[in-house]
Amino acid sequence: MTATISTIYRYPVKSMGGDTLQQTNLTTNGIPGDRCWTLKDEERGGIKGGKRFPHLMSMHATLEQEPDEQTPSPPVTIRLPDGQQGRSQDNRINQLLSDAVGAPVSLWPLLPADQLEHYKRPPNPENFDQKAYFREVFARTEDEPLPDLSGFPAELFIYESSPGTYFDAYPLLLMTNASLEALQATDSDSVFDVQRFRPNIVLDTQEQGFVENNWVGRRMQLGDAVLTIEAICPRCVMTTHGFADLPKDPKVMRHLVKHNDGNLGVYASVTTPGRIKTGDAVEWLSARIRK
Questions:
Q1: Binning pLDDT at 50, 70 and 90, where does residue 291 land?
Q2: Whole-model pTM over 0.90
């Protein structure tokens, strides 16, 4: 399969909008500066994003300088939908964000991986209904199957994210134009904009359909970097939220479930760090090695 990098995205604050990059280094923690800040829920506890606070998706975050080993979470400027701006270094930033999302929250940079308490999931409340919780998070109706999470790291059942990161599962999320086009062909009334799905790398290919589904377990070279495709990405309620000029649309998930089991794109880890840029072509390095 021939494919090239169309777009590279970086999201400095988990669940907020970010910017495109023409080139970047890939490290074992993905794109430097990607999800290097997050919000913590000061009411219920835990690291939280757009699943809990949909308002975040209408905010935009910009790094004030490039990250490095000494500063993995550089200062960030956050722009709210009403035009207000706040900086991570401002004393008022937590109040600004709390007012915007309607709940007490605090903004946090990445902490070292050994600070496990920071990353732990809060205890479940009494009479916690796990199936109901997953149906809400993954926007599944009673007659739709819950997603298969067996491809996720087991530590994510203990921690909100792998300690030392704020990723949902793995450092990179890849998608193709083919998958977006396949989805759009299912319903002209819904808008399957790439912004709904928040990939890190979008690949252009002449193939058709949900081509990424066949990539799990394979290795690809992009530029100087080597990636391992770890798992298909099960989609959540965030894809249905309205933000920017996109309307709220529960049908997005209905089509995802009907046409691709609720999945879109694939998660990847970085096996060999290196530099990538738009226009780089995919080179497959091995046949399927698992799954």
A1: very low
A2: yes
